[in-house]
Amino acid sequence: MLEIKNLHVSIEEKKIIKGLDLSINKGEVHALMGPNGSGKSTLSYVLSGKDKYEINDGTIDYNGKNLLELDVDERANEGLFLAFQYPMEIPGVQTSFFLKTAINSKRKYLGQSEMDALEFAKLMKSKAEELNISTEMLKRDLNVNYSGGEKKKQEILQMSMLSPKMAILDETDSGLDIDALRIVSEGVNKLRNSDNSFLVITHYQRLLNYIKPDFVHIIADGKIVKSGDYSLALELEEKGYEEISQTA
Amino acid sequence: MAATEQTIKQVNTLGSSDYKYGFSTEVDEIRPPKGLNEEIIKFISAQKDEPEWMLEWRLNAFKVFNKLPKPQWAKLNIPEIDYQDCYYYSIPKSLKDKPKSLDEIDPEILKTYEKLGIPLKEQKMLSGIAVDAVFDSVSVATTYKKQLSDLGIVFCSISEAVKTHPELVKKYLGSVIPVSDHSFAALNSAVFTDGSFIYIPEGVRCPVELSTYFRINAMNTGQFERTLIIADKDSYVSYLEGCTAPMRDENQLHAANVELVALDNAEIKYSTVQNWYPGDKEGKGGIYNFVTKRGACRGKNSKISWTQVETGSAITWKYPSCILQGDNSKGEFYSVAITNNMQQADTGTKMIHIGKNTSSKIISKGISAGKANNTYRGLVNILSKAKNARNFTQCDSLLIGNQCGAHTVPYIESSNSDSMIEHEATTSKINEDQLFYCQQRGLNSEDAVGLIVNGFCKEVLQHLPMEFAVEAQKLVAISLEGSVG
Question: CATH code for A2-93+164-247?
Fold first, then answer.
C-alpha cells in the first residue's frame, strides 16, 4: 500500500524528517507516536501533498505509483485521506453540500457518474447516525462554530463516506472527551477491513486502547527509532519518550 | 505548486476565449451615422414614432448633458470617451416594421437568444419567467404578454409604453433620476433606445418573474437602456435582467438608467446578473458599464431590494440606490462584484433615509483577482426627519493573488440622534489552508476556489430568484477560473 524509503524533508531550510522508512501493507493499522516536534504532522502533510515542504531525498510508493508526482486532489481521489488535526472552516458552504462535492469529485476522477441525490442522502444519514451526528449539524456551514469534538467527528464522517484505501489520522484524539473518543474510534474500527490501511498519529496511548494497531512506531527527531507491536505503546506509556528513545 | 499560485496561474491564463457569450450574430442593421447631436436624437425619436413631448424631453436632456462634466468620484481609470465616435442607434432591419409575431423575426436573432439560453418561441418559453429581449437598440419580443395583461400588469418595451401609457411614462420618467443628476444620466435621457416598462396595478402580486435580456450585438454601438418599474399600492413584483455582448477589440458603451417607484405597501425586488464582455487579459475591449439605478420607496411600508451579481464589463460604474421616503419603508442592497485580469469596478449603493422608521441593509461582497481593482463605494444618509432610522452595512472583500486591489469607501451622514448605523468591513486573502483542505477531499484547485468563493458570496446569491441562483453560482466560478462550464 505505502512504502516510504529514506525520506528527507525540510521546510524553509530546516530539516524536519531525516531518513524515515515506513512500510504499510493492506489491512494493517500502524500507530506513529512521538513527542512534539518529532515530525509526525510533517509526515502527514508530506503524504497528502501540502506545499512548502521540500523533499530532499527518498521515495514514496503508493500502490505502485510515485506518490510525490501526484497533485493533492489526485492523491485524495486515489484513496488517500487525511483526517486533519485542525479541520478548516468553510463559511457559506453547507456541510452536506461539501460532502456531496467531495464524493462526486472522486466519482468524476474514477470516471463514474454523479451519485444519485437519494442514494447520497441515505448514505449520509446512515453514516452520520453511526457517529451520533445530527442532521441539523449537516445543514450548518462546514466546521463553522463546531466544537473541537464536532470537528473531529466531521472528519471521521468524511472519511467513512469517502471510504479511503489509506487513511491518515493526525492527532484525531486531541480535544476529544472520553465519549467522543469512543464514538470516533468505533467509526474507525467499522471501516477497517483487509483492503485498507490506517496510519494513526498520536501522542497518547489512550487512543490505541480503542483502535488496536498492528504495529507501533516511535518517531524522534525525524526518524523512526523503534518499532514493535501494541505492547510498545504500553511500554512507552510507562517509561516516556526520552527513555525509550535512548534505549533504542 | 502552491494551490494559490496554481489558482493565480489559472486565473491568468483565463483569456477572452473563455467568455462563452462572445459570438456575434450576422444581421443587417439600420444605423444612422456615428456621432452625438440633435439630428441623431431626432432620428431616434422619429424611428420610434415618438410623440412630440418625448422628443422635447430628449432634446432638453441633451442640452443638460452638454453642460455637465463627467462624474469624477470613482476610483476608476476611465479613458476619455469620444462620444462622437459611437453609433447611438442600431436595429436589425427585420425589426424595423414591428413584427407582429415571432414568425416574422429574423431566425438569426431568435437563434441568438436560444444560444444564450433564452428561448422566445411559445413552446420553449421559460416557465414561470416572462422575458423581454432587447437586441442592440430595440426590444425583440416579450413573452407571456397576454397572461400578464389579464391581471392588468403592463410589461412591454419602454418605446411601446411611451405610446400606449403616456400618462404613466410622463408622470414617472425622470422622477427618480433627474435628467440633470450627472452626465451619464443626461446622456441616457437624450438617446435612450429601449428597455422595459412595468406597471403592476394596485393589489396585484405578479405571479411570474419578469425578466429582460440585454444583448449588444452591433459594433461600435452604445446601448442606452431605460427601464421604468412602477409598483402601485399593495403590489409585488420580482424582476431580473441579464446582459451579454460579443467579444470585440474596441470598447463599447452601455449607459443605462433604471428607475423604480414603489407606492404604499408595495415591494419591488430587482436582480441583475451582469456578464457583459469583460475585455481580454491585457484589458483590450470590453464594455464600459455606466449604470444609474435608483428606486424610490414613495409609499409607507414600501420596500425595494436590489440584488446584483456583477462579473463582466471592462469598467463597472454602478450604484443602485434607494430613496426611503415613505414611513417604515425598507431598502436593501445585496451585491457580488467580481473583477479579474484588468477589470475595474466601482460599485455600491446609496441609502437615503427621509421617512420615519426607515431601514436599510447593505451586504457587499467584492472579489478581486489578476490585476483588477474593486471598490465598494456607499452612502448612508439619514436626514433629520428620519426618526428611528436603521442601517446595517457589511462589506467583505476577498483577494486572489497579490496584484489586485480591494477598496472600501463608505460615507455615513446622520442628521438625527435616534438613528442607529452599523458598519462592518473585512478584507481577506483566499486562504491557502482552506484550499488545501478542499483539495485533500478530492476537489481540483478550480473547484476548490469556486466552492470557497461561492461560500463567501452565499449571503448575496441566496437573494436571487431560485431559477437563477444556480446559474449565478456557476458564473461566479467561471469568471474566476476559466473552466468554461
Answer: 3.40.50.300
